[in-house]
């Protein structure tokens, strides 16, 4: 029978884990036995509440603030986690933002802010964990992309470009790290109920989803937990797992 705590003894770093999908991932990985590092950018009270929820359920977690779009802060985050926990076995690149607008009116700041966090942030965190993971010849990396990176979306050229970039980054890293026992996969949520989707006009969105409803953060976290766990997902790498109610097929 499969273990209910396949991540026991492992440390999992989840970026952007104070709210939404990242919070759900943190709770799921803690339930799977991992010690979880709850990264956040500014919501310190929310991050502390995630840590408290994990501790109350008998799990292990601590919070660490860092802007994962900033090279120096990423370096500080990874160093602190290695000092505190001794290893990073699972990295979930989840932190992300939107700065929507039609391309013709999109200013360079909004383009760059989304690329800096949603794409370069994934690169910076992956590069920073590469050496310790390669040395220990074991690791799981899961990047949170989006179906928008597969299909494009009017008003989200910056976000779609970053998320498509994450898919190319995932596949390239998967090829580079495979021989060292490290898998790298992406999870592509469709429309999920979080702060990010709170103000969307749902009518046209629901019409495009075969399952005719938005997904939950828990449903995304379940897919991430599967990809992070051994031995169930040990032979899966370079893949994009969609959690989108059937919105994008083929
Ligand atoms: P959310 O509710 O807005 O939460 C975003 C999280 O990212 C927060 O924990 C936030 O921390 C953190 N964050 C923001 N900027 C950061 C930075 N510079 N450094 C570190 N952390 C930072 O977002 P979500 O909906 O859960 O989305 C999570 C991921 O799923 C994103 O990559 C998003 O693109 C992707 N996704 C979401 C959907 C959806 O429908 N919601 C669909 C597809 C993909 P603070 O609380 O400190 O600000």
UniProtKB/TrEMBL annotation:
SUPFAM superfamilies: NAD(P)-binding Rossmann-fold domains. Signal peptide: none annotated. Its EC number is 1.1.1.100. NADP(+) binds at residues 16-19, 67-68, 94, 159-163, 192. The keyword Oxidoreductase applies. PROSITE patterns: ADH_SHORT (PS00061). Pathway: Lipid metabolism; fatty acid biosynthesis. Residues 10-190 form the Ketoreductase domain. InterPro entries: 3oxo_ACP_reduc, KR_dom, NAD(P)-bd_dom_sf, Sc_DH/Rdtase_CS, SDR, SDR_fam. GO terms for molecular function: 3-oxoacyl-[acyl-carrier-protein] reductase (NADPH) activity; NAD binding. Keywords: Fatty acid biosynthesis, Fatty acid metabolism, Lipid biosynthesis, Lipid metabolism, NADP, Oxidoreductase. The active site is at 159 (proton acceptor). NCBIfam families: 3oxo_ACP_reduc, PRK12826.1-2. Homotetramer. Catalyzes the NADPH-dependent reduction of beta-ketoacyl-ACP substrates to beta-hydroxyacyl-ACP products, the first reductive step in the elongation cycle of fatty acid biosynthesis. This is 3-oxoacyl-[acyl-carrier-protein] reductase. It comes from Aphanocapsa feldmannii 277cV. The lineage of its organism: Bacteria, Bacillati, Cyanobacteriota, Cyanophyceae, Oscillatoriophycideae.
């Amino acid at each position: 029978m499969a273990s209910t705590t396949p991540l026991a003894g492992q440390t999992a770093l989840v970026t952007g884990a104070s709210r939404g999908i990242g919070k759900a991932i943190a709770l799921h990985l803690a339930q799977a036995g991992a010690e979880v590092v709850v990264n956040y950018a500014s919501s310190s009270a929310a991050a502390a509440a995630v840590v408290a929820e994990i501790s109350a359920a008998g799990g292990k977690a601590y919070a660490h603030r860092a802007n994962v779009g900033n090279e120096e802060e990423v370096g500080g985050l990874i160093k602190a986690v290695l000092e505190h926990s001794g290893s990073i076995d699972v990295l979930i690149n989840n932190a992300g933002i939107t700065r929507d607008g039609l391309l013709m009116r999109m200013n360079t700041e909004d383009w760059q802010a989304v690329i800096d966090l949603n794409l370069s942030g994934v690169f910076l965190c992956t590069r920073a964990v590469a050496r310790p993971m390669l040395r220990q010849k074991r690791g799981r990396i899961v990047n949170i992309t989006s179906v928008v990176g597969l299909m494009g979306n009017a008003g989200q050229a910056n976000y779609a470009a970053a998320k498509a970039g994450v898919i190319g980054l995932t596949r390239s890293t998967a090829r580079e790290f495979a021989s060292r026992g490290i898998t790298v996969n992406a999870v592509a949520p469709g429309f999920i109920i979080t702060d990010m989707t709170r103000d969307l006009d749902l009518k046209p969105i629901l019409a495009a989803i075969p399952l005719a409803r938005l997904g939950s953060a828990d449903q995304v976290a379940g897919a991430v937990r599967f990809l992070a766990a051994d031995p169930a997902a040990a032979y899966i790498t370079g893949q994009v797992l969609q959690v989108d109610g059937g919105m994008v097929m083929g």
